Amino acid sequence: MFELMVETTFSAAHQLKGYKGKCERLHGHNWKVQVHVIAERLNEIDIAMDFHELKRLTDEVVSSLDHRVLNEIFPFTEKNPSSENIAKWIYDSLRKKINNENIHLSAVTVWESETSSATYYES
After folding, report:
1. Is 10 in contact with 31 (CB distance < 8 Å)?
2. Does 29 qualify as catalytic in the annotation?
3. Catalytic residue among 23, 36, 84, 104
4. Per the residue annotation, which of 7, 24, 27, 67 is the catalytic one?
5. Can 112 be counted among the known catalytic residues?
6. The domain 2-120 is classified under which CATH number: 1.20.120.340, 3.40.910.10, 3.40.50.1980, 3.30.479.10?
7. Which letter, b or e, does each residue of 15-48 get, where b requires 16 or more Cβ atoms within 10 Å of its Cβ?
């Protein structure tokens, strides 16, 4: 089994509705996103997936969040734009874009600071 990982970043603001504390107020983060994919085999040129293609697809998904107020973007108009929900949203959005039967999206991790992150994966 092979695992590949790419990273990207975006800047955005959010607030957590119903949270009792300073995160209830509008604030921003410089988010980091890590995307992990796995493959059982390599292709005819001995790679699992082109890193540039995986990064392009990841950037395509994440660009819709960059320099935005996340609470104004669906589905975060209806649910909190927590790190957990952002990781799941990126996972679900990216899974639809990966059109390679050998590649399985294994996890998306969203870092809201250097020391705090949330990961989404399906078991």
Report:
1. yes
2. no
3. 23
4. 67
5. yes
6. 3.30.479.10
7. bbeeeeeeeeeeeebebbbbbbbbbeeeeeeeeb
What does each of the 123 residues of the chain score in pLDDT, given as a tens digit?
999 999 999 999 999 999 999 999 999 999 999 999 999 999 999 999 999 999 999 999 999 999 999 999 999 999 999 999 999 999 999 999 998 899 999 999 999 999 999 999 998
Please report the DSSP string for 75-110 in residue order. TTTTS---HHHHHHHHHHHHHHH---TTEEEEEEEE
Dist. CA 56–CA 123, nearest whole Å: 26
Which two structure tokens, joined as six digits, stand for 37?
A: 């994919």
Residue 78 known to be catalytic: no
Distance CA(75)–CA(122), nearest Å, equals 19
DSSP letters for 1-48: -EEEEEEEEEEEEE--TT--SGGGS-EEEEEEEEEEEEESS--TTS-S
